[in-house]
């Protein structure tokens, strides 16, 4: 009888205990969706956060201190003053199709990267990577002293894929296969919904991949993202609105992570546009705008800085003194004079914006500002993917609102690329960029950048309204997220 009672007691005890299965999936909600998964041909930061490091890896990366470290490379060297760069490939690295990574895979991947990244193509000229055994190398006509930093962190990522993936493309030449070397294998992409990555069982690198699945959901509405995280539907969200900071800080179940300047809020002039092709229009707009109001309308009271430099505040090496007088001029009367002196006759100035993360609110604020100086303004507001397509059409807009992540070298700023939307093909600007890219010493590069930064305020390829700070929110039980110029989950766990 005692044994029976003991058995019943133990059974009741077991039934009363809630046994939770270990979490095998991290659910991430992102504010935007990328137009393509082809990282070599897409500068959208979201695709780098999804695939780079997790599925596709570089030869070298930047660590949290901005230093170049080896990933797929065992080591690398430069010779001839930065004209020749050689990279030795790590042995026994496995691709997701279970064969070994070869120097041929690496060279083919990097040459494709050069082909589609015009800023690098302009530097490289006809130079391309060659390979032999376990090494790849490239030789330039001129020194490229920052080439390792460019490879480690360029907006168009220098990731390595299997040669089999490089020949699998759609009718527009975009990749449809993503066989890499990272700890997670690409599993699926549901347009408008999510990307799923699954753990690569044969991965032998230094990353941990504790969790079986990573799911990236596309949730452009900031309210839906935040409520989804608070309810437990998501474990991590990006682009947290500063208006929510005070409330979220009081929730002990959540971690609000606010970082330094992560990139620039950019008003991109279309130099082939209906009106913005005229220098006086760019001058008038730059003179008129309350840039603090532009930033506040998008980011709220917190979440941004008014640093006038094109580079971020923490990039001390590249900061130029005395830029305040060119930035946030906010002089409506002077702007009106510029228009009158150039016989502006009420032509329509068109602003293009996405509805992502309050960018549309900035567009409407800018419209109001320009109407105060007598300009006729129209605003086009579309989703992020449509905006990225529209901004490549020179006839559609005069000013495009966008955000750009930080880069280690000024010449990597996308708006300096003459083939990028906005078309900064000014002869003197490009001459300065060429000199910067071929500098033989850091001192020479800094001197050229000083001239280029000042000339940029004269030519106005863009207005850098300010700089946004990183802002992420996640469940406190989620550990090991890497926040290094983005957010990465290959070492994360519950």
TrEMBL record:
It comes from the Bacteria. Belongs to the bacterial solute-binding protein 5 family. GO terms for molecular function: peptide transmembrane transporter activity. Residues 69-410 form the Solute-binding protein family domain. Keywords: Signal. One of its GO terms (cellular component) is outer membrane-bounded periplasmic space. This is Solute-binding protein family 5 domain-containing protein. It comes from Bullifex porci.
């Amino acid at each position: 009888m005692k044994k029976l009672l003991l058995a019943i007691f133990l059974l009741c005890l077991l039934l009363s205990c809630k046994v939770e299965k270990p979490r095998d999936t991290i659910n991430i909600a992102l504010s935007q969706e990328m137009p393509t998964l082809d990282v070599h041909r897409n500068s959208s930061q979201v695709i780098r956060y999804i695939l780079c490091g997790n599925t596709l890896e570089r030869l070298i990366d930047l660590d949290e201190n901005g230093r170049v470290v080896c990933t797929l490379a065992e080591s690398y060297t430069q010779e001839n003053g930065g004209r020749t760069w050689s990279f030795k490939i790590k042995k026994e690295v496995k691709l997701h199709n279970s064969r070994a990574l070869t120097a041929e895979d690496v060279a083919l991947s990097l040459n494709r990267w050069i082909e589609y990244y015009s800023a690098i193509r302009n530097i490289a000229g006809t130079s391309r990577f060659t390979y032999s055994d376990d090494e790849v190398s490239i030789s330039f006509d001129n020194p490229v002293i920052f080439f390792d930093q460019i490879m480690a962190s360029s907006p168009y990522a220098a990731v390595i894929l299997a040669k089999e993936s490089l020949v699998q493309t759609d009718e527009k030449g975009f990749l449809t296969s993503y066989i890499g070397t990272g700890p997670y294998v690409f599993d699926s992409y549901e347009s408008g919904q999510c990307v799923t990555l699954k753990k690569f069982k044969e991965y032998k690198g230094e990353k941990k991949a504790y969790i079986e699945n990573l799911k990236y959901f596309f949730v452009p509405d900031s309210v839906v993202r935040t409520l989804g995280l608070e309810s437990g539907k998501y474990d991590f969200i990006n682009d947290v609105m500063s208006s929510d900071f005070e409330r979220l800080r009081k929730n002990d179940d959540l971690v609000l992570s606010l970082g330094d300047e992560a990139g620039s809020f950019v008003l991109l002039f279309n130099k082939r546009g209906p009106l913005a092709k005229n220098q006086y229009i760019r001058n008038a707009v730059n003179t008129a705008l309350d840039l603090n109001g532009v930033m506040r309308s998008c980011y709220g009271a917190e979440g941004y800085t008014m640093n006038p430099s094109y580079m971020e505040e923490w990039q001390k090496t590249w900061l130029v003194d005395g830029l305040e007088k060119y930035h946030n001029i906010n002089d409506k009367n002077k702007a009106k004079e510029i228009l009158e002196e150039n016989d502006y006759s009420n032509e329509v100035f068109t602003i293009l914006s996405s509805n992502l993360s309050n960018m549309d609110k900035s567009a409407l604020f800018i419209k109001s500002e320009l109407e105060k100086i007598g300009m006729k303004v129209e605003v086009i507001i579309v989703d992020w993917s449509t905006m990225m397509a529209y901004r490549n059409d020179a006839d559609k807009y005069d000013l495009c609102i966008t955000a750009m992540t930080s880069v280690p070298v000024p010449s990597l700023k996308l708006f300096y690329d003459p083939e990028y939307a906005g078309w900064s093909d000014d002869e003197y600007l490009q001459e300065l960029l060429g000199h910067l890219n071929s500098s033989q010493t850091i001192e020479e590069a800094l001197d050229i950048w000083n001239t280029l930064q000042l000339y940029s305020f004269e030519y106005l390829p863009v207005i850098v309204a300010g700089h946004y700070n990183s802002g992420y929110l996640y469940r406190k039980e989620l550990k090991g997220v890497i926040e290094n110029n983005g957010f990465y989950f290959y070492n994360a766990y519950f």
